[in-house]
Amino acid sequence: MCNSSYDPAKCQTVSEMLARLGDKWTVLVIMMLADGPQRFSDLKRAVVGISQRMLTLTLRALERDGLVSRTVHPTVPPKVEYALTELGCSFGEPIRAMGGWVFRNHDLIQTARAEFDERNAATGGSKLVRLG
């Protein structure tokens, strides 16, 4: 990804943001926040399978990158809401594009996987581990 046409000083950030884009918890949190601001507990319920610690780490990383804002409302107890920033909304664009691509190509992907597994089963090869 980083070659002579790229600013070497930016390559680390490119790698980090690609990793963020590839993180399933990031993708799910961004998708949930696309509907508007949410409290931590609401996100925890909406993002099935995420632990409290992982949600905290994900939100902190997204806030650090400028993708999510954290607002503390002066109530008792304090009400904390998370929302996508303008940058976070734009980060959702490649996520939606990738999701759309998967939906458009779902049948082809499933066919390719089945053919691969069939070929490997016939030759005694092992199946690949499923993602997710």
Q: How would you sum up this structure, described in words?
A:
The protein has 132 residues and is mainly alpha-helical. Helices cover 62% and strands 11% of the residues. The two termini are 25 Å apart. It has helices at residues 8-22, 24-33, 40-46, 52-64, 86-122, and strands spanning 38-39, 68-73, 79-84.
Shape: extended
Task: Determine the strand fraction and express it as a percent band.
Answer: 5-15%
Structural class: mainly alpha
Please summarize the sheet with the most strands: 3 strands, antiparallel
Tag the structure with descriptive keywords.
about 130 residues; mainly alpha; three-stranded antiparallel beta sheet; 5 helices; about 10% strand
Spell out the blueprint of helices and strands.
Layout: H1 8-22, H2 24-33, E1 38-39, H3 40-46, H4 52-64, E2 68-73, E3 79-84, H5 86-122
Antiparallel strand pairs: 1-3, 2-3
Brief overview:
By secondary structure, the chain is mainly α. It has helices at residues 8-22, 24-33, 40-46, 52-64, 86-122, and strands at 38-39, 68-73, 79-84.
